[in-house]
Amino acid sequence: MSNNSELCETLNFELLSRTKKGRPKKPKFLAIDFFCGAGGTTRGLIDADGYVLAGVDKVTTCARTYLRNNGNETWDRDYPVFLDMDIFPKSEEYPQGQQHKIEESLDVIVARAREKYPDVPLCLAICAPCQPFTAMSHGMSEQRVEKRSSDRSLLMHASQFVERYQPEYVLSENVAGISKQRFGGVWQEFMDELDKIGYVVGSSLICASNFGIPQRRRRSILAGVRSDLFDEPPSKLVVPQSDPEAKAISVEAALKGLPKLGAGASDPSVPNHLSRGLNDINLRRITYAPAGGSNSYLENTPEGDLSLPCHNRVNSKFGQRCFGDSYTRMAPDEVSPTITTKCHSFTNGRFGHHDVSQKRCISMREAARLQSFKDDYIFYPENQLTSVATQIGNAVPPKLASFFMNYLLSSISDLSGSGRKKRLDPKTHHSSF
After folding, report:
1. Which of 48, 120, 340, 371 is in Cβ range 3.0-4.6 Å of 405 for a Cys bridge?
2. Residue 259 vs residues 32, 148, 290, 373: alpha-carbon distances, Å
3. Residue 403: CB atoms within 10 Å
4. End-to-end alpha-carbon separation of the chain, Å?
């Protein structure tokens, strides 16, 4: 069984120090985080007083970040098991598939947890990689196109685990575009499959800024509750599009208090507070970039036109300014744009720092704050900026995961009441009646 034993050896001191906090409390729910990445969803689930049993992701570069930041605070305060395995089933065409191995590992993990807490609900978080549901760029290799097409079936493969473990809750997050028909209707197909398995499901298109996250991040949210938990199951679950108690947070407010930096510099007093260097021409460009403005400033700088020739050709062809967010700064009094895996790059979006006295892009700590990670959440390797940016950009904002998990918990008024007819047998890990 693939596990986190080697990494946990380095965490012994941290684990022991947590056990001195007093008697740990019973978790509100148990969870397994599929496609866990660097742990944004897991962090949000732990913050919602859950106990995350395992994270599943074949991308091993995020394992250290995932484990070091996500010690559970309930039950035994242990760390989730990190299963670095491929969720696809093994076949002649795809011999590297490890779905059966994941099942073997989770059978043991779930049985132990169910035996300890037979009445604590289980949630499967299934936040598949979003790349297959974003627009394909021209020039993409045939192999990459094929991989994206294959990856669109990840949700359906994950549904096999829902059927196997019959969790009380299912939570899924993905890009807004996943619901578009051009991606094969996979979102609706996933909802239909959950309905067939026996879940009341709902979906909404939301923006993270409506949940107290300082970022304009549009996402599709799917929430499911096992239908037998309702005395009278509704036809669908209503998924909220905002948190009425959340306050809007601007970029300036979110990044307040962090030490100033120059391009390519870091401050060791704050984890991951490092920014990407700028070449001479981009350093000159950002010098003239106004906070929150478009890149039209490039046409009339004191040094003349600093626009890219290729951009000028496209602008001329279409009669309007294109790529308007590249080479620009964030607006201090607004939320940030979507934090992507390229959030460290001045050329790839509105990622220039809002403070015009700082001639640089946002640091990785600033990107993490805009994703609602706390400052003690450290991304590894700390000095590998591109890897850290990828982990942050791909993450689910913890605050978003926490809100929707609490919403799911509140969707059932009394899990121990007469409406809860179906239970899991910890010896077989399958539903029993």
Report:
1. 48
2. 37, 40, 21, 18
3. 25
4. 30
| Mean pLDDT for the chain overall | 87
Q: Give the residue among 39, 55, 52 at the shortest CA–CA distance from 373.
A: 39
What is the SS3 assignment for 171?
strand
Domain boundaries, the chain: 5-248+397-432, 259-362
The answer, yes or no, to whether the previous bond of 381 is cis (omega within 30 of 0) is yes
CB-hemisphere CA count at 13 Å for 117? 19
Query: What pLDDT score does 308 carry?
Result: 77
Beta-carbon count within 10 A of 428 CB: 10
- Secondary structure letter of residue 355 according to DSSP: -
Residue 98: Cβ within 10 Å count: 20
Q: CB atoms < 10 A from the CB of 261, how many?
A: 22
d(CA 85, CA 58): 5
pLDDT bracket for residue 111 (50, 70, 90) = very high
Q: Which two tokens stand for residue 310?
A: 């290729």
- CA–CA separation, 11 vs 351, rounded Å? 34
CB 364, CB 270: distance < 8 Å: no
With a CB cutoff of 8 Å and minimum separation 6, the contacts of 22 are none
Measured CA distances, 365 to 107, 254, 307 (Å) = 37, 11, 29
Model confidence band, residue 22 (pLDDT cutoffs 50, 70, 90):
confident
3-state class percentages of the chain: helix first, strand second, coil last, to nearest 5: 35, 15, 50
pLDDT of 2 over the 50 cut? no
Measured between alpha carbons, how far is 82 from 101 in angstroms, rounded to an integer?
13
| 371: nearest Cα among 354, 388, 356 | 388
Residue 55: what are its φ and ψ, rounded to 5°? -115, 135
Q: In the CATH scheme, what is the homologous superfamily, with its name and number, of domain 5-248+397-432?
A: Vaccinia Virus protein VP39 (3.40.50.150)
Residue 135 to residue 184: CA distance in whole angstroms: 13
Instruction: Measure the CA–CA gap between 409 and 419, rounded to whole angstroms.
Output: 15
Is 87 within 8 Å of 58 (Cβ atoms)? Answer: yes
What distance in Å separates the CA atoms of residue 309 and residue 300, rounded to the nearest whole number? 14
pLDDT at 413: 57
377 half-sphere exposure, CB direction, 13 A CA radius: 27
Residue that the structure tokens 């998924």 belong to = 239
Instruction: Using alpha carbons, select from 261, 254, 292, 275 the residue that is nearest to residue 345.
Output: 275
